[in-house]
Amino acid sequence: MKIKPFDYASIVLVHKESDFDSLKELFLEFAISIDFDLSYQGFLQELGGLAEQYNTPSGAAFLLNLHGISVGCIGIRKINPMVAEIKRFYIRSGSVGPKYKKMLMEVAIDWARQLGIKKIRLNTQQSMASASKVCLETGFLEISPKLAAMSNPARMFELPIVGIEEYFSTKAS
Length: 173
What we know:
By secondary structure, this protein is α+β, with helices and mostly antiparallel strands. The protein has 6 helices and 7 strands; from the N terminus they run βαααβββαβαββα.
């Protein structure tokens, strides 16, 4: 008789120093895993200031932990008081199934909703098909990106967010 192993997955808000260490490790893995250079985004400076950029009130980051090991992350930063952007949406290859990718995205969306954000954006590259798929599954719409200083064609997604009261009233009906 085969017994299915328990699924010990959790998503946690990054707030402790050890969480930021795990986040930095995953951000570096992300940078290595993609087929373009992040220097145009000031990636090294971003790594040096994770606690400032991915902490309230300017942003947040979440870790996906499986059996106590961080295997994925998502960052969200405010562009302005009404608009936020998803950054560094990454899950180690082969570590989890698609449901966890979607759950991680939904946690970031919920965080933005609670802070009164009205739109979330995510800029991906053509090679990031998994991120694009999760965006579409969670209600993002593909919009025309502004011209960017990158050699790969980019895809920009945007999600309009309803207020928390409106969100719960639609869920109840």
